[in-house]
Each structure stands twice: as structure tokens, then as C-alpha cells.
Amino acid sequence: MHWLYLGIAVFFEIAFALGANAADGFTKLWPSVFTLVMAAGGIFFLSRALLTLDVGVGYAIWTGLGSVGIVLLGALIFKEKLDWRKLIGFGLVICGIIDLQLTGA
């Protein structure tokens, strides 16, 4: 169940960051409300996952997968630049997550 909670937390983390961009410095009401709700949801589900996972592992996976999702969706939704250096960075993050899995985390 902890992996499901962590996956949901990653979803909320990505939605939070995209909402923060849309909130325009918290000057727009509904995007700001959305951002705060997504942040709270992400922290809630992360805390549920951390009941079983080591905090370092859970947090690393949460932020790593969240970062990859945010950059990919930022490129798709906001037309942000996606170059080979970012792709290498994604690969390194994913390798790190796989390594955490293989070490029994």
C-alpha cells in the first residue's frame, strides 16, 4: 500500500508545481487554492507512505519522480525547453530510483 500512497503523492507533487506556476505568485484565486490543496494532498500521502518506507528513500523517490514529471509536463503544457542535458538528468534520476529499489528500499 505504501507504493500506492507514494504514487499518489507524486501525482499531487506534480499538480502542486504546475498549479504554483498557474497561480502567478498567488495572485490568482482558484489556481492558488488548487496549489494549496495539491500541496496538502502530496504531504498527506507522502506521510502515509513514510509509515513503511525509510524517510530518505521515500522523499528521494517523491521529489525525483515529481521533478521528472514536472519538467516533462512543463515542456508539454508551458512549452518549456527540453534539451539533451535535461534528458540525461532524467535518466540519472530514474537510475537512482531503480538503484534504491534494487538495494531493498
TrEMBL record:
Mode of membrane association: Multi-pass membrane protein
Places the protein is found: Cell membrane
Record InterPro entries: EmrE-like (IPR037185), Small_drug/metabolite_transptr (IPR000390), Small_multidrug_res (IPR045324)
Domain of life the protein comes from: Bacteria
Keyword Transmembrane belongs to the record: yes
One GO molecular-function entry: transmembrane transporter activity
Main location per the UniProt record: membrane
GO cellular component, one term: plasma membrane
Gene3D superfamilies: 1.10.3730.20
Listed transmembrane segments: 29-47, 59-78
Keywords: Cell membrane, Membrane, Transmembrane, Transmembrane helix, Transport
Family: Belongs to the drug/metabolite transporter (DMT) superfamily. Small multidrug resistance (SMR) (TC 2.A.7.1) family.
Protein name: Quaternary ammonium compound-resistance protein SugE
Lineage of producing organism: Bacteria, Bacillati, Actinomycetota, Actinomycetes, Pseudonocardiales
